[in-house]
């Protein structure tokens, strides 16, 4: 029998109780072995507190990606001071839980070193608040030091910390830099409210000084958890439809959120974390122009960083191609779009990953769409359905389109712009994924 998911209030109570146990046993935050690259990788072992408290051997646990977001652009108007003197409290939503955590911070779009003076992680006390669950605040270190320097264009991973993390819970990842650091690396369409505060309020648990709301995620690009329940992660790489740009803010209604719920609860589903690497406006073939590195890097440019290098990745779901057709310069040769998708699949296969791909969803009636573009979309979908691109297909086009007018989204799933699904549409997309395929692996499935 499938166990019903915990309510938010019950989950928070459990997390608070577990956090108190960790605090009493360890007496202080114990760090994992220092090491790694780029200012502290954190290593492959568990947090020290986890190693000493669990009777099971370390081999019984593993690091798994629980949350991720693609670094998408340099934040406008931050080219000089960045956000020096501001505490940035990012709110992120986990897919799987564990007993320890580590965080990746990125300076991909910076043009000078990012000097991190102070960083922390905690369990959120609830929606629309910057407060932490009492006893859950943990200072992050990097190679054993509280401060870190992240070179321009690079990323760093914190040392592990012992922290009970519940699945489908919100975490607070706070970063503070005291000195100018140049352009801020951000993900602009978070669909989640985060917070800003003046001064170093990194370990303020009550959140009272966080009076400015923000719709962006800044610097933080991944949260991994240490545990025994998850068997790996699936990465969804895509455009605004994967990014969930029209989903309800703060409600975790992206199709990837619904997929994560299925993987946590359905009998026979692989117990994978789900990592959302969607970027609004993203294309397979072209990046945005105007700076280096380019804002909104193409899927071909970012595939290694955003998919292959993610922790515990076992499968990838690719939802891309619509923006290649719609955005200028428009790609109206379906063969080039298909070839780009095939390149992504080949790179996934080199790492032993199964590559599931989606058909291109309808955009009839969207501003500026013309019949020639629909012809290209149909040609790409024909190749995908014929099995000449991916190991397996999820037919998002079929489940979202209006049977009476297949060039358009079904009105019940349309956010109103004739391009992006609403919450119900995103839920329908997640329901279309064959979760059994995700856990088979290429060797086991004969693919």
TrEMBL record:
**SUPFAM superfamilies reported for this sequence:** SGNH hydrolase
- Ranges for the region named Disordered are 38-62
Write the record's keywords in alphabetical order, separated by commas: Hydrolase
User: What are the protein's GO molecular function terms?
Assistant: hydrolase activity
Domain (SGNH hydrolase-type esterase): residue spans on this chain: 236-428
Q: Gene3D superfamilies from the entry?
A: SGNH hydrolase
Compositional bias per record (Low complexity), positions renumbered to this chain? 46-62
The record's PANTHER family line, in alphabetical order, gives: GDSL-LIKE LIPASE/ACYLHYDROLASE, PUTATIVE (AFU_ORTHOLOGUE AFUA_2G00820)-RELATED, GDSL-LIKE LIPASE_ACYLHYDROLASE, PUTATIVE (AFU_ORTHOLOGUE AFUA_2G00820)-RELATED
User: Which named protein is this?
Assistant: SGNH/GDSL hydrolase family protein
Q: Which organism is it from?
A: Streptomyces thioluteus
